[in-house]
Specification:
Length: 135
């Protein structure tokens, strides 16, 4: 009977581990950042932003819902962009931060592969407004 003790302990630990795994399968957790909306960017036009995404060729690196392109995988897909907690894994996803990222990605993350596209503040606001519709 002494040899059965390690197996009982292992079985107990396995049971606890399974409980944790099952708990992780519950409902989706709320976003860590407050959800932004296009309305948070005064005067921004999401429709113009969608067109600008095409004009700037963002689809050369990203898959963007609502914008036709080659379906590239160089950069991350931008599906559900409005629901993400962080931009590029480093910046809380708020409307103002999204504009900041679009204007100068390297200022936020010097190691990013995303180039500075040379867009204006207004263009960045419009693109951010469109991205914030992607839920």
């Amino acid at each position: 009977m002494r040899d059965a003790a390690p197996f009982k302990c292992a079985r107990g630990l396995l049971g606890i581990g399974m409980c944790f795994l099952l708990a992780a399968c519950g409902p989706e957790a709320p976003s860590l950042a407050p959800l932004g909306s296009p309305a948070d960017l005064a005067g921004a036009d999401p429709g113009r932003g969608r067109r600008l995404i095409g004009d700037y060729g963002c689809v050369a690196c990203h898959t963007v819902p609502g914008v036709s392109g080659p379906g590239s995988a160089v950069g991350p897909p931008l599906k559900n962009m409005a629901l993400r907690a962080y931009i590029a894994g480093v910046l809380p996803n708020t409307p103002a931060n999204l504009v900041r990222w679009l204007l100068d990605p390297a200022a936020v993350d010097p190691l990013t592969a995303m180039p500075d596209m040379g867009m204006s503040d207004e263009e960045a606001k419009n693109i951010a407004a469109y991205l914030l519709t992607l839920r």
